[in-house]
Design brief:
3-stranded antiparallel beta sheet, alpha/beta, 5-stranded mixed beta sheet
Length: about 160
Amino acid sequence: MLSVFQQVDVLFVPDSSKALGQIIAFMKFNDVQNMNYLGTNLWNTSDLPKRAACEDAGIYFSAGVDINDLAIRESEFFKEYVQNYNEEPTLVEVQAFEASRALKNQISGGAQGRESLALALRGLQSSPGVTGDLKMSSQREFMRPINVLRLETGIVKKVE
């Protein structure tokens, strides 16, 4: 008789890569093989390969920014960030940079005071991002493409 885990093809883990590593170890101990794991951008860290080292698992997650993308790695933002902080930026740093750049551009464009700035931001259609223009949604949020990434033989790769 198959265990409940052996009847499942995919397991969604909305937690850190540390938790994923513990779950994979539990599954191996219980002889569950060829499992696919789905996660969030919480897995988009440099420690994912060591925590989830498992050759027979499909490990997929989404991320707003693929740090391995050549366009990001060659951007002025990326180069300056690494030079200043001796580490690679994460999605949080990319988003903070893009948001502050949008504010700076609106203020430089003549927005003065809170009301004027709020009005300028409400009318913003696009703003320069780290890898190109970001589009503004009707809810006044920057939209960016979502990347699906996969851990493949210890390397995070974009799923095409």
